[in-house]
Specification:
274 residues, alpha/beta, 2 domains, 36% helix, 10 helices, Rossmann fold, 14 strands
Length: 274
């Protein structure tokens, strides 16, 4: 029996324009099962979607770096795993020196920081509707009270992205989780922040086990949660590698694959048990 549903956002519940389909909105709003979003996005970037879907369950941001309950004002933090600020400072300084042309930004609980507006930042602003706060990273990261949850790099070229990933690995900085998201994002969060770990925290509080759950995903950063749930559902637009982790392959995110997966898989599984 499936008792809880988790879903990734970009490439899964959202289409390529970062929007929800009317069909998926209706499916979520009428679902008899609780649904939590599990995203690499910040809470600010998730807010519009959470509101559109009228969700009140715990939500997961920053690839598991933050578990929060939506409120009218600021997110109510249930668990948080920020990066170590001195490590962020070392990472950012090294990247800015070695790859001065890549699009680099960082997130705390309420801000999206960048040092310069470039094509990557402009694209992300259009996609999320957020405006970045312009800062000097060197100065900002000296603030002992700042909590950075994610460093994000936008690297559209495959060759350069591979070079960036190798460079970060060779820095041997402690406590980092480096993941590729989509086709151009490299996202750095705390090693303690994974989608799987976030699911376990929510399930423990709900008195459920991973076997009781379904999860929808499409990207490399979804593999940890897809691997632990009893019912992994993978989008039709995912790569072959990600689809191999699925118990059921649904339609693409352009064709309301979330709704299709609920109807053709989850509802049928629960009807058989019921």
């Amino acid at each position: 029996m499936i008792k809880y549903i988790f879903s990734d956002l970009d490439g899964t519940l959202l289409n390529q324009a970062g929007q929800l389909s009317e069909k998926d909105i209706a499916t979520v709003k009428t679902s008899p099962l609780p649904i939590s979003l599990v995203s690499a996005r910040s809470p600010q970037e998730m807010q519009a979607t959470v509101e559109q879907l009228a969700l009140t369950t715990p939500q997961v941001a920053f690839n598991g770096g933050l578990i929060y309950k939506p409120t009218d004002l600021f997110p109510m933090v249930l668990a948080e795993y920020p990066l170590v600020t001195t490590t962020v400072a070392q990472l950012v300084a090294a990247l800015q020196t070695e790859f001065s042309d890549i699009s680099l930004s960082a997130y705390d609980l309420q801000h999206w920081y960048t040092q310069k507006i470039d094509a990557g930042i402009e694209t992300e602003a259009q996609l999320t509707g957020l405006l970045p706060t312009i800062i000097n990273f060197d100065d900002q990261l000296k603030n002992p009270f700042i909590k950075i949850f994610k460093v994000m790099l936008m690297v559209p070229e495959d060759e350069q992205r591979t070079a960036v990933l190798q460079f970060i690995d060779q820095l041997h900085l402690p406590g980092l989780s480096v993941q590729q998201s989509g086709t151009m994002y490299v996202e750095i969060t705390s090693q303690r922040a994974t989608k799987a770990q976030a699911l376990m925290t929510i399930l423990k509080n709900a008195g459920l086990t991973p076997a009781d759950c379904a999860a929808f995903g499409a990207g490399q950063n979804d593999l940890s949660m897809l691997s632990i749930v009893g019912h992994p559902i993978v989008m039709g637009n995912a790569s072959d590698q990600i689809q191999a982790a699925g118990q059921f392959i649904t339609k693409t995110n352009h064709h309301s694959g979330f709704s299709y997966g609920i109807k053709k898989y989850i509802t049928k599984v629960n009807q058989k048990v019921g």
